[in-house]
Amino acid sequence: MPNERFTIHYSRKIRKIDPRSGFKYSRKATANAYVQALGEGEEQDRNRRPMEPIYEKIFPIRSYEVDAHGLVRPTAVLNYLQEAAGDHAKLLGISVRDLMAQGLTWVLSRTHLKLLGTAHSREEMRVRTWPSTREGRFSCREFEVTATDGRPIAFATSSFAVLDLAIRRPVAIDEHLPAYPLLPSRALADDFATLPRLSVPEMELTFRVGRGDLDINRHANNVVYVDWALETVPAAVAEGCLLADLEIAYRAEVFYGETVLARSQELAGGKEPVFLHQLVRREDGAELTRLVTRWREYTKQDERTGNILTTGKRRKKS
Prior knowledge:
Elements: H1 31-39, E1 55-60, H2 74-92, H3 96-100, E2 104-115, E3 124-135, E4 138-147, E5 152-164, E6 169-171, E7 203-208, H4 222-230, H5 235-240, E8 241-250, E9 259-266, E10 274-281, E11 287-297, H6 300-306
Antiparallel strand pairs: 1-3, 2-5, 2-8, 3-4, 4-5, 5-6, 7-9, 8-11, 9-10, 10-11
């Protein structure tokens, strides 16, 4: 299980929905009102089929999910993982809406994504996912991603916690969730050790949280954090390399209208570029996220299978 303490600081502001105020924020709203505002009486289909430990889903790569080279964006892959996990959770009776009926929700604590290949627009990706462990306040979920021709694209593992919406604090999973099947096999062997803290920022960009950044939990979605962090990578790396490995530690929420400072620092001495990233809320200096990104140069195989449309400037190694 993850050995890092769950350090998300969720008690700074409690923001909920008052159904009488047209979905505006109200600190007086209760967790039950929050659920009612999202849709009372929605039927669940978890009893229509048996609970299976492994779930598969195929995702077509849309034209708006590729980068300037015509390759699927890493953030699009993360969205596929998020969608497949959500679909499987619904079948298991532990979806976000299932939890919200109890005044709870899922939050993401850690993710480790290893990208082995890439693909281009109009191809399809197959995502296989399964819950592997649940212990204390954490539950791990695994992912395998392949192209439909069978070539490997990515492996990933994530650690989730269940959050009490009223107090914005994680709770013991076994005390609040029903049993569901586990497959004790890890896609990536990662014990989620603490990620290093960025010490000397070399790049800093400012972002304001917009409405399009929010998810059903009314805070910025976890994939948006990655978008902000990747924007701080130098153009020579972003254009001449592919993201090979991404580690994320989520530490705090950020809400609509707040300002995020995205910082990065390149680590010296490696054969390929490695960056430490940090997201900070400007209003109070709270650390939102730590990330580590590792990059590799394009290969001829990438150009064949990825159908690169433009040739980026390759980064000269020091």
